[in-house]
TrEMBL record:
Source organism of this protein record: Flavobacterium granuli
Protein known as: CubicO group peptidase (Beta-lactamase class C family)
Domain Beta-lactamase-related: from-to ranges: 44-331
InterPro entries documented for this protein: AmpC-like, Beta-lactam-related, Beta-lactam/transpept-like
Amino acid sequence: MKNFLFTLLATGFLIQTGFAQNFDKAKLDEYFNVLETNNKFMGSAAISQNGKIIYTKQIGFSDIENKVKPNDNTKYRIGSISKTFTTVLVFKAIEANKLKLTDKLNQYFPEVPNANEITISNLLNHRSGIHNFTDDVEYSKWDTKKTSEKELLATIIKGGSDFKPDAKASYSNSNYVLLTWILQKIYKKDYALLLNEQIVQPLHLKNTYFGKPTNIKDNESFSYSLQNGNWVKHTETDMSIPLGAGAIVSTPSDLTLFSEALFNGKLVSDQNLELIKILKDGFGMGLFQVPFNEKKGYGHTGGIDDFTSAFAHFDEQNVTIALTSNGSVFNNNNISITLASAVYNQPYEMPSFKTISVTTEELDKYLGVYASKDIPIKITFTKNNNTLIAQATGQPSTELVATDKDKFSFELAGAIMEFNPAEKIMNLKQGGQQFVFTKE
């Protein structure tokens, strides 16, 4: 549902080919154990090939207060990965002749600004221009309250339009909330029932359903944020709000099975699958492209409360990786890269959490505004006592951790910044890429 990561650039997985049928599971276990030992990540992961689960791992606690550990069947809120499920339901409605991509929104919600110009296709690939209600400053004040369709629709209408329909793409949860209601109108059934009848039951998914208030007795997980070294339970979004944009609960194993079914023609026709995968301004329909060396994969990420999630499918050897977390101060993209590197027999390093102390005077040589010829952002470095602060263009500021001489990191974004004060440059490393910034 939300943009939960500070990121300096858009990155994907950078993975080499070469599948290892019997990859080093012990090394991958060790990788997750390092994260757990250093209190960096809680959650679950899975890898599948040809619809068969070949690796699972769970670390941390699903309920810290009662010391409940997760297992293979522990369920997590998956946030915006729900959009991929909703996309499948929309295309199933299309294949049942109940809906068309060219249908206009005014057939269902004429009150929404520009409804006579917005198509189902525009909603699916975020080209409607409808304002994203979760971006509103006030959203965090009511996201835990049960909200009716009438109330939420009024909020979406009030938010108005950010741009002319189909002029560009901009991520908006409002699109998929509207799609949820459209599905319910044409089928005269609740979204939860449609999800169960059309996806969950046919695929025999054991742990996937429309969410409700978390019940630890049902092997569901709470989410947590790390504050002053301690995990603190997050409040829960009421699922009457995210609906098909972010209300589904699942497990990594179920996500890999869903992914395998989708990309192998078990949910929608091959022709419609290709339509779903077409990118316009970087957006598919409920999917994003995931770089895979010279090949390409597809997937989605999610974030709701303090839950985060990701899945990606690669046609090469029919592999899917999936990740769910209920607490993280580490970059999920790096974990996903590690999962893929392991299964494709590529080298990866154990994470290191070494830190060093720096004085406020030592930070002075790094301060200033840095720009790059490679990407259109500037990064401003300031300090707060003996902590270096970075702020990229259009993004909030964040504290950096000193890991070595002239070297700082922001783990949640998987970003490493190495300074050369004498030459007034800074090298940014993130997602397998490197960019040189020069001090202005």
